[in-house]
Specification:
The chain is mainly alpha-helical and 131 residues long. It has 6 helices and no strands. It binds heme C.
């Protein structure tokens, strides 16, 4: 006849809850803070291009809100022309770098990681070409 001692049940349940919390926090760290967790992972800023360096960052962090027919604040970031407008008026960099007097972006999320910010900064400094 099997029976589990109550103390064991409590212990195992506690252990499972703790592992779940640990695992989920590790998981979020992995995605948000990968540049901090792995500082030696190279950030490739050698050949920064709109298509391969900037567009992927905007696609995964911005176009949920700034895409489609009714983009947030009327700011469309799902096409080059729309992005270029925000580069030229200074708002794109102001927002992602969390500069004072700009609305910090991505809204309600962590600041972009340093590698993404470096790529955007380098691309803008090069004149934000559509390459
Ligand atoms: C959750 C929705 C959401 C996401 C994600 C988001 N935005 Fe925004 N964005 C907004 C809203 C709403 C505004 C209007 C201002 C405000 O409410 O803060 C805005 C405003 C802006 C502005 C104007 C800021 C100013 O001060 O004039 C820029 C530029 C901008 N967003 C760029 C971005 C970029 C770049 C990303 C991705 C890195 C991004 N946004 C992600 C919702 C979002």
């Amino acid at each position: 006849m099997y029976y589990i001692k109550p103390v064991n049940t409590v212990f195992i349940t506690a252990l499972m809850i703790i592992s779940c919390i640990l695992l989920s926090s590790l998981n979020s760290c992995y995605y948000d803070k990968s540049d901090l967790l792995y500082p030696n992972t190279a950030c490739d800023t050698a050949a920064v291009k709109y298509s391969t360096s900037v567009l992927p960052v905007l696609s995964s962090n911005c176009i949920n809100c700034h895409g489609g027919a009714t983009p947030s604040a009327g700011i469309s970031l799902d096409n080059y022309a729309g992005v270029k407008v925000q580069v030229d008026n200074g708002r794109l960099w102001g927002a992602v770098s969390h500069s004072a007097s700009y609305s910090p972006m991505p809204k309600n999320s962590a600041k972009l990681n340093n590698c993404s910010l470096d790529k955007i900064r380098i691309w803008i400094a090069a004149g934000a070409p559509n390459n």
